[in-house]
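Fold this: Alcohol dehydrogenase class IV
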Amino acid sequence: MWDNCYNYDTVREIRVKTTAYVGVGAIDRIGYILGNLKNEGISSVLCVCGGHAYRASGAWDKAEAAAQKQGIVLALYNRVTPNPTTDIVNDAAALGRAVNAGAVLAIGGGSPLDCGKGAAILLANPGKSAEDLFCFRFTPQKALPLVAVNLTHGTGSEVNRFAVVTVAGRNHRSIVGHDCSYPRYAIDDPALMTGLSAEQSRYVSIDALCRVVEASTTTMANPLVVTLASETVRLVHTWLPIVLAEPENLKARYGLCMAALQAGVAFDNSLLHMAHALEQPLSRFRDVPHGLALAILLPAVIGECYAARPDVLAHVLAPLAPGLKGEPDEAAAAAKAVEDWLFSLGINQKLLDLGVQESDVEEFCNFVEQTPSLGLLLSVAPVRSSRQRVARIYTNSLRPMP
């Protein structure tokens, strides 16, 4: 169905650049990875992570033991917060410079991995700051080697070039993506993720699903992205309910690891659009968890975009909305089916439940229009991201769909 809507004479770039180790026990490859870095003459590595999960997951013990065996010094920066700021990236890079780090090891979810990408660039570009990087004052051509040990099955940051950091002193996050910022190696070990709570498991998995729904419908999407999107939705639909019932089920966690990795590659190839752009004021001003905000907005985004990509969305959403025929007038049914599925997982909140009022929509629209980095995402949406459409998405997300 969907492949009939692609022009075979349109050339698309396809990116798959990180070597990823996926599966139970993948963390044991850290010794091989650090050995390779040692062979390159690297004797000191900056390790970037948050304050808890890097130890609780067992990843730090494995990394520390492997580093000692290779004679590599690990300089630990464990103060990365959710939605890290440029100040945090600068602090991490300062520690790396102090120990003359030759590589960066990032352990955690999206925030530590994004911070690690920023620090790896700064360490290879003396004199530059995180503000220079995330305010687009220079275009880096090099970065230190980065190893990403992923502890959540959501962002796919371990296999793409993008980093999202909040610019200190401003009201927005900035998104950068450079060829030099791909992790050289990535580790996705399901055994490191069994400690995720039910809420975390829901939100990170919905993040992966939302990424592929958006990536497969941008103006940059290619057939590989649509294929990855379809498989990602199938995996999340199949395995997320099992993980919620059996948190230590490694087969189910593995399925969600693969979903997130595929989502990362899809996003890397064709970007995201409205759901991720419109989520920003919710997490910024209302402190709504990223995955929850996406779950609230996604049905309304589908309602707006479906008619422009009916073949693709009917294919990608088939596990959640069976019976779609790829016809433009199915938009409302597709959106409602996705919302019903989200409700079945226990994600049944809408904006009114979070204290957002209809009077807040104007403020959110202003934020979206005034945030520089969101323009790129909105520009690749399959429909024009007018202020009226943005406002309609927020308004239609206030309460459950009829």
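The mean pLDDT is 95. The beta strands are 19-22, 44-49, 73-77, 103-108, 146-150, 162-166, 173-177, 185-188.
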